[in-house]
Amino acid sequence: MKCINKILMGVFLLSGTTLVYAAPTQLFSNDTIIEYDLDNFSLNVNGISHDASAFSITPVTNGVRLGFSGYLNLYASSYFSYSPEEKMADYSALFSLAPTAGNIITDFNITYSGGYFIETPGSVGASGVGMSFSESSGGGAFSITSNFTGMAVPTLNGQLSATGSIGVIEVFDGYQEVFVGNQQVLDYCELENPAICYYRDEPVYDQVAIYRQEMDLGEASIYLESITIAANVTAVPEPPVGILMTFGLLVLGMQFRRKKSTDT
Questions:
Q1: Can you tell me the distance from the alpha carbon of 179 to that of 227, in angstroms, rounded to the nearest whole number?
Q2: What local confidence, expressed as pLDDT, does residue 18 receive?
């Protein structure tokens, strides 16, 4: 057996391979125990993968806040190449929650916080566990909360997208005189007989607004700042005094009966 162990050790030394098992990290927050392993987290932004430095883990009341340290940020624009541009990102993280002694977790909330800005034509989108968000105009911050029963936290898989699109708009270019028809106007009447008059046709023009079509370029940005998991914890109810007294009397009765049977 010792020989086999020496052989295996030699193989690992020769190959330069080191087996490392990272232990999950454990945090305590109020009445909750949080456990996670950063080795199982992933973040991919525009095809670039980021390591554990992209995540920040902060305890909150009976829960934890996952921050993205500014990495989960997308910007797409059609201004640079005069063609639509789309940017994508995806992430994955897993936490486990457990109550401290004497407590139970009834349910928990997951809150997604971030912001966006769109110069139309453009759009943004975000998806996650219990969350779906999409906009095609405007901007501002967003915060979306979903509630889950129990204490089994699902894997926080999600995606972000930003698209800078191209459209066509009509731009006012001024007015132009356009012939719309003829109208008869009085030319003259005979002096000897004023009832006899002569008319001539004159062209009529109108001012018509002229528009030209121009390319409309757009841009969009979106970021996810954090995901917060907060458990609702309650204490395990203690048995009523009456039940405890009844249980105590039953125990005493059983002990008395056992002693009596032993004496006989």
A1: 65
A2: 38
Phi/psi of residue 94, each to 5°? Answer: -140, 130
Q: What are 52-106's pLDDT values in tens digits?
A: 999 999 999 999 999 999 999 999 999 999 999 999 999 999 999 999 999 999 9
Cis amide prior to 121 (ω within 30 degrees): yes
- In-domain check, residue 107: yes
Its pTM stands at 0.71
141 shares a domain with 31 = yes
Q: Are residues 198 and 224 in the same domain?
A: no
Separation of CA 9 from chain center: 47
> Omega of the bond prior to 59 within 30 degrees of 0, cis?
no
Tokens of 169: 């708009």
Q: Do 223 and 201 fall into the same domain?
A: no
Indicate the number of domains in the chain.
2
Residue span of the structural domain in which 146 resides: 19-165+218-248
What are 175's strand-pairing partners?
Answer: 209
Largest CA distance in the chain: 161
Quick check: is 228 in a domain? yes
Say if 8 falls within a structural domain: no
Closest residue by Cα to residue 101 from 19, 194, 33: 33
